[in-house]
Amino acid sequence: MLSGKALDDGAHCDAAVAWLCRAQDATPDRGVSHSYLIGKGWMPSYPETTGYIIPTFINCSRLLGEQDLMRRALEMAEWELGLQLANGAIPGLVSGEPVVFDTGQVLFGWLGAYAETGDRRFMDAAARAGDWLVSGLDGSGTWSSFGNPGTDSIHTYNVRVAWALVALARASGEHRYADAAGRFVAWALGQEEGNGWFRRNCLNDNDRPLLHTIAYTSQGLLECGLLLGDARCIDAARRTSAELKERVGADGRMPGRFDSSWNPAAAWCCLTGMAQTAIVWQRLDRLDGTDQYAGAVEKVVSFLKGTQDLDASEDGVRGGIKGSFPVNGGYGTYRLPNWAAKFFIDALLLREFPTADFPLY
Questions:
Q1: Using one digit for the tens of pLDDT, what is the confidence trace for 16-33?
Q2: Based on C-alpha coordinates, what's the Rg of the chain?
Q3: In angstroms, rounded to a whole number, what is the distance separating the alpha carbons of residues 24 and 322?
Q4: β-sheet bridge partners, residue 91
Q5: Domain that holds residue 164
Q6: Domain count of the chain?
Q7: 233, part of any domain
């Protein structure tokens, strides 16, 4: 059941930020716990998502005036430096083997830390990560090795890695990173069915991709398109976004999976993907100077607020965002993932600061 509480955005944002702080403090290092597993406790720190929590904490520090969050963000970035492999990659949580997606997400964190401090160690680490990513592109322009453990290697949602490479090109002045990203983007665009739905776009079921990975792809394409000046990417993100807008329920819920005709393929909600989608919708409204997605954003954010337990006595539950609604659904079952809280915060920051200019990695 929903909690029934829907306070102002600031109260919900503060609660999610506090949850992420507890997730960081729950581990023996300065990374952020992968998730809180109900009945089991906090999981070990997760390099991939800690990477893109760094810019979220930097944004929160600047926008909300919370200097402690800047300290925490830089501690995360330092922790990631110690994990980087000799080849420049970031290892997976369990396997210890290099992972393309994880490396791209940590790259975002180092770029944020470098922009904030000017510390060359962060840029040097980002460049080594970028060099490894560029070296791994195959003749078709994609990464056919070092995929997420337990999945095949070729993923359309790696366009979020391409976005990290374009951001690195901007920060470093090295255009080869953007050139490599452009090769992957061209491949990714070729995976679209023509209706905003993409092939090879899931962790575990490419015929019925998760809203989470659908949103990874739409956000990655939108941001690549804006940075590269490629209207094809922006238009593709628009097609995905328009289809998803039509699939918001009256109470704001969205199915957790969709087939290639955009038919719902799961009865449960993927809360992470809902928050991500609300981010993309807001970015498009900003870009186009419209409010065509405002109603959908309001419904989805209100639903997400209703799933956030603000009063739980359990530290791992209070203020977090669950993987699924209901909590026994098929994504992050009985878990509160750190990235669900991260994207929820990002969506709320866009609402609270509609004219502010800040990076949303």
A1: 999 999 999 999 999 999
A2: 19
A3: 17
A4: 98
A5: 9-352
A6: 1
A7: yes
Per DSSP, helices labelled H in 96-151 are 100-117, 120-135
Classify residue 122: in a domain, yes or no: yes
The C-alpha atoms of residue 201 and residue 67 are separated, in whole angstroms, by: 38
Does residue 358 belong to any structural domain of this protein?
Answer: no
Residues 109-127 pLDDT 10s: 999 999 999 999 999 999 9
Residue 325, beta-bridge partner list: 269
Q: Which two tokens stand for residue 86?
A: 């000799």
| Tokens describing residue 345 | 């915060």
How many other CB atoms are there within 10 angstroms of residue 117's CB atom?
14
Distance separating alpha carbons of residues 300 and 107, to the nearest angstrom = 29
Tell me the average pLDDT across 313-322.
97
CA dihedral 125, 127, 128, 129 (to 10 degrees): 90
Domain of 85: which CATH number? 1.50.10.10
**Residues 24 and 30: beta-carbon distance below 8 Å:** yes
- 3, part of any domain: no
Coil, strand, or helix at residue 198? strand
Cα-based distances in Å from 108 to 28, 86, 156, 291: 23, 19, 19, 29
- Going by the DSSP 8-state scheme, the letter that residue 361 receives in this structure is -
